[in-house]
Amino acid sequence: MNRERSLLLVGATDETVAKAKRLGLHVLLLQHPTKINAEQERLADHVEIVDYTRWDLVEPLAERLWDSPGFAAATSITEPGLENAARINDLFALGGTGYAVTRRFRDKAVMRAHLAGLDPDAVRAQPLRGREDLDAFGKRHGYPFIVKPTDATASIGVHRLDGPADADRVWAEVRRLSGTRTDRVSTLMLLQDFLMEEYVDGPEYSVESFSSGGRHVVIAVTEKFTDPAHFAELGHAVPARLGAAVDEQVRTSVIGFLDRLGVKDGVCHTEIRIGAHGPRVIESHNRIAGDAITDLVHSVYGIDTVTLALAAPFGLAERLPDRPKAHGGAAVRSVVGRPGDVVDAVDGVAEAQALADVLAVRISARPGETVRPLRDNWDRLGLVAVTGEDTTAAIRRGAELVGAVVKVRLTGADGRPGLATAAPVSDRTVIPA
């Protein structure tokens, strides 16, 4: 095994391992016991089954693999693996993103504290330690404001306080969630600390970027549709329908943010809102986007951010143009149902996947399950990702597909049959200069 072409991969999907192999890399995979499968064992050159979120377990294992068979780079593009991949970079001076920078992305309180000293326009924020902090923050910064976990994903545990009357309810939810696992599938992430931060009113977007040697390229600006109550993600669309001046403001804002956080290399997924005072960063992650956004970006821009993330440490990543050009549009529409309905059957997935304009169909709903109230991304029934002539056409096509081809059949409490639908999204128009 060639050490200089060997990658230590901390957590991965089947797709990630397969793409690393297609790059000609030798893959040493650290995989969680709940995530390993036969395909990954077949694809990877070496597999260690370990809770890769625990540094006390990962460190001795990394040291043994460093000695033999050896590796030239360590990375992760999955949220729970980021910090320990960064620690490995530091331990062996591999030159990749280190722990200090990764922690700024992973811990929202650390990010806010870091930015407060560098950016006068940064969102105001404060750690939530006790019930009285909610009242104090509201008095100091006004309402509404947001409470959320410092290191969770998928809109889990996010609450909006519109006034002092909401404080008891939100504090009760914080206490209920603290110490619980965020992911109802794999339980890899633990909710512990919470943050209060200023609410930025305005439409939400995500920005997919790639950095190399400190040069940041904004690949795509993605429209993001969220539930107004709990901020669960209802859809995404590429390219965002922005006027040229606002698009430039977004790009400049995100590039400045990445510089301030100190990232030099790799992919990032940054979430922003465009408020009355322009674009402001809500949070960011030094990994690829979820929710099939990578499929949208690949379809519209011809750029595979997964492959970029894997190739970059070995000097195999393509040099991107300063402003990649979009070709057509693409969209994700989330599949939702009425809370309390029971899932009877799921039909049409294979038929949809065979259509030329369909990028992905991911249905998590299973027969016998009860539809939950929409609080976070895990409460959705699935998603579909499609292409279109432009952004608007793709958004409409995704909605047509749900119910017409992809059919999640439901039974209501009254016994009446029904179908899941595409989550409604706002009829957003182009934001001009």
UniProtKB/TrEMBL annotation:
InterPro entries recorded: ATP-dep_AA_Ligase, ATP-grasp, ATP_grasp_subdomain_1, LAL_C2
Q: Which Pfam families match?
A: ATP-grasp_4, LAL_C2
Q: Which GO terms describe its molecular function?
A: ATP binding; ligase activity; metal ion binding
**Keyword entries, A-Z:** ATP-binding, Ligase, Nucleotide-binding
Q: Where are the annotated coiled coils located?
A: none
Q: Does the keyword Nucleotide-binding apply?
A: yes
Q: Write down the superkingdom of origin.
A: Bacteria
Domain ATP-grasp stretches: 112-314
Does the UniProt entry include the keyword Metal-binding?
A: no
Protein known as: Carboxylase
Q: Which organism is it from?
A: Streptomyces yokosukanensis
